[in-house]
Amino acid sequence: MRAADNVSEQRLNQRLAALARLGATPAGGVNRPALSLADAQAQELMARWGQDIGLEPSRDAAGNFFLRLPGGPEGAAPVLSGSHLDSQPTGGRYDGVYGVVAALEAAQALLEAGVPRRRPLDVVAWMNEEGSRFAPGMMGSSVFAGARTLDEIGAVCDSQGLSVAEALRATALRLAHIPGRPLGGAVHAYVEAHIEQGPVLDRAGVPVGIVTGIQGKHTFRVEVDGEAAHAGTSCRAERRDALLAALAMVRALTEVMHDAEDIVKFTVGRFEVMPNAPSVVPARVVFSIDLRHPDTGTLRRLSAQVQPLCEAHAGPCTVQVTRLSAADSLVFPPEMQQRVKQAAEALGIPAIALPSAAGHDARYLHGIAPSAMVFVPSRDGITHNEAEYTDSADLAAGARVLTEVLQGLLA
């Protein structure tokens, strides 16, 4: 009675294609910000698919979406599996959403195989994993796991000044037909399928990755304040140019973060200049810092240098550095890694072990339940890009391994 044999490659790809139309970009990618209309539409579509096969949809106060496959005695802690539905502004068709659709496919395969279950399975789509509209990311999973509070995330605003709390209320009104559920709760185990978002599996020609852990990530917001002045009349010596100060900070940080092995990942991905007018000396600059390293000690050492370096290069301006998140490196439990390995072996699907260079919601679930991840290849390692692609057969292979792991956890 192997549920993985009921995984449908065609059904999996049809659902991915349908979700890709919600927030579709002209270049074939997806722009589906967290708590946007397209995000709500994606949850509605997932709810319909789930209800069609007997799953029970629900949402919690943090905007996390669930589909429950009942099982076991009342009150039994569920197994959770999923990822996220939100995307980057020029995101691909598979990042995040594959894990949600693969978990739904696993639930349907379990139903079709008539597998007995000692506990429920919750397919989950976590709110705002990407952090592209509201920073930092992984908001829904962190609140679910108790690492952040609703008040903390609720106060965060997007570039238009709309807060997470306001966006949550608006989305809840639109999705009022989906029942509510309590926030958090006991979890028996968590398994997340995801595209690798790197080149390792693709270069190795291997369809499945057994994820050993997630490298650490610290993020910051840097706000540089100077003074607006006329570009044609203000003297250089008297200027408080926020842009020049910010560039000096980025240059200094880049030099300190450089390593010959290219292990440190330092990124300034957002840079806002105000008033952003051709004939005005910039009065204010806000930029982001994304710093990652697989060794927690190294990450913390580099992270500790961000604020003093920014302050040392502020010149005549003032600077405020805010740490948005500080997630250290982690290793998934060996027994959970072993479950993924044994599932792949039982199905005859080649698999190799590798760490995740990108962050995932599994980071926060790891803190409250035994967790694991299943990777499938990203062609040429391309991700957070409209050209993102994973072969249909690899998507199905990952879903089959996920189903086998979930069947074992539910038994």
Automatic annotation (TrEMBL):
Pfam families: M20_dimer (PF07687), Peptidase_M20 (PF01546). Signal peptide: none annotated. Binds 2 Zn(2+) ions per subunit. Its cofactor is Zn(2+). One of its GO terms (molecular function) is hydrolase activity, acting on carbon-nitrogen (but not peptide) bonds, in linear amidines. Zn(2+) 1 binds at residues 84, 95, 194. The keyword Hydrolase applies. Zn(2+) 2 binds at residues 95, 130, 384. Keywords: Hydrolase, Metal-binding, Zinc. Belongs to the peptidase M20 family. NCBIfam families: hydantase (TIGR01879). This is Zn-dependent hydrolase. It comes from Caldimonas thermodepolymerans.
